[in-house]
Amino acid sequence: MADFSKTIALILILALAANLALMADADDKEIRVRKKKGEKECIQGWECSWWSKYCCNETISDVFAVYQFEDLFSKRNTPVAHAIGFWDYHSFILAAAMYEPLGFGTTGGKLMQMKEVAAFLAHVGAKTSCGDGVLTGGPLSYGLCFNREMSPMQDYCDDFYKYLYPCAPGASYYGRGALPIYWNYNYGACGDGIKVDLLHHPEYLEQNATIAFQAAIWRWMTPVKKNQPSAHDIFVGNWKPTKNDTLAKRGNTFGTTMNVLYGEYTCGQGDINPMSTIISHYLYYLDLLGVGREQAGPHDELTCAEQEAFNPASSPKTATAS
């Protein structure tokens, strides 16, 4: 409990700093520059707060404003939603700030930055939508409608990981968060990654939006398995596909981000709805951000319908976010 109290205290302090910074004029943001081993590195205040080449670029709050967040998730607080008042822009920016020095939303030029924010949030919007069958605003407007699985049928406790990530007494590991996490081993792995005890306190993901966003960004930035790319590295082009990847129709594409995150649940099954829904969110968000869906590339870069899964369901278990 003490560790969580410290975490929350730090988040509250950073949130106050973030709120003050976001209210300030962007032109007043201090950019510090140095050279290390011939490479330029920067710091940009609270939002990109340790020396990194990525902090020399614009930050996420420079390219993605409050009104754009509101446009993307315009129906999240309507009566049909199940997480009214939970999700907000400041929580996202505060969580993102922990990963901007690592390249999240800060890789490449402004176009790539905006495309990555749209791509990540497309996954989030599709996985937290309550837009099926709605009559107003369109189904793509209902992202961030949930922060937890409704009416879970099990506690998602798997004894396979009883030594590494044993289930806490009374805890249930149903889906929670911006990219919903299921199972004790995934809560344990994510908790290790973000330094929050999610194994003993999985409920934190439905109690604190910053932690929920932070967990989702961690999943985006972190490989599911060793020797595999993260969704981030796939999308921004840091990953170099092997010959086997090419044969499996995997490449540096939006479609491959779905593959590495969800595997056979979404990919290699033809044009199934779970895949198409994520793609639709991505194109819709690009339009709303003023980037335009034409910047998404051809259809074969958006889809994973014919890709072989990175992690087939029949392969040995590993701690993942799906």
TrEMBL record:
Keywords: Disulfide bond, Signal. InterPro entries: Glyco_hydro_19, Glyco_hydro_19_cat, Lysozyme-like_dom_sf. Residues 68-294 form the Glycoside hydrolase family 19 catalytic domain. Pfam families: Glyco_hydro_19. The keyword Disulfide bond applies. CDD domains: chitinase_GH19 (cd00325). Residues 1-26 form the signal peptide. This is Glycoside hydrolase family 19 catalytic domain-containing protein. It comes from Hibiscus sabdariffa (roselle).
